[in-house]
Amino acid sequence: MRDLIVRSYIRPKLPSMRWTDDLDIRFVQVVEFLGGERSATPKKILSHMGVRDLTISHVKSHLQMYRKKKEAESIKARRMIHEMKRRQSQQYLQIYERATQFIQNHQRLQLDNTEKITSSLGSSNKSLYQSSRVGFNENRDNDVVVAGGGVIGEEGLSLELTLGHKY
């Protein structure tokens, strides 16, 4: 069997670096200048930043964290947009349902009113017809009746029924 060689951890010669706000702002500016976190490479970032004591490994690790942060923000934004669209769809559905109910109720009321008016007119027409028949039967023998100088016959009775005034 071959002896497996285990690499020991070699501590870097330079101490770890603390990214200040100013340094991070400069980093983000350079990344955006280079076309975003996907197209910017650590070497290009390092050369454009021009900061002394900044190594490629510092830039690599910071770029990796920056990419993860951007990805998390992107996922969060997509979820928010999806949730907003879902809520908006629910609101549109509720508005549609309310409008449909309103229209149905309005149509129902119109139908009820039409039925009431029709039944009311039907009974009025029936009573009007009956009263006209009574008046007609009383005057049936007399086709022409002279009252106060006027002539009332079938024509006068028709006017009486039409206008609702006695002649």
Give the gist of this structure.
By secondary structure, this protein is mostly helical.
Structure description:
With 167 residues, the chain is mainly alpha-helical. The chain has 2 domains: 100 residues, Arc Repressor Mutant, subunit A (Orthogonal Bundle); 29 residues, no CATH class. Helices cover 68% and strands 4% of the residues. The chain contains 4 helices and 2 strands; from the N terminus they run H-H-H-E-E-H. Strands 1-2 form a two-stranded antiparallel ribbon. Helix 2 crosses helix 3.
Spatial gap, N to C terminus: 134 Å
Largest sheet: 2 strands, antiparallel
At CATH level 2, the architecture of the largest domain is Orthogonal Bundle
Low-confidence stretches: 144-150
> Percentage of helical residues?
55-70%
Shape verdict: rod-shaped
User: Gyration radius, to the nearest Å?
Assistant: 48 Å
Assign the CATH class of the largest domain: Mainly Alpha
Strand order of the largest sheet: 1-2
Count of all domains: 2
Q: For the residues shown, what is the average pLDDT?
A: 80
SS element count, helices: 4
Care to count the β-strands?
A: 2
Relative strand content: under 5%
Helices and strands in order, then pairings?
Elements: H1 21-33, H2 42-49, H3 56-138, E1 145-147, E2 150-152, H4 154-163
Antiparallel strand pairs: 1-2
Which terms summarize this structure?
2 domains; Arc Repressor Mutant, subunit A; 4 helices; 167 residues; transcription regulation
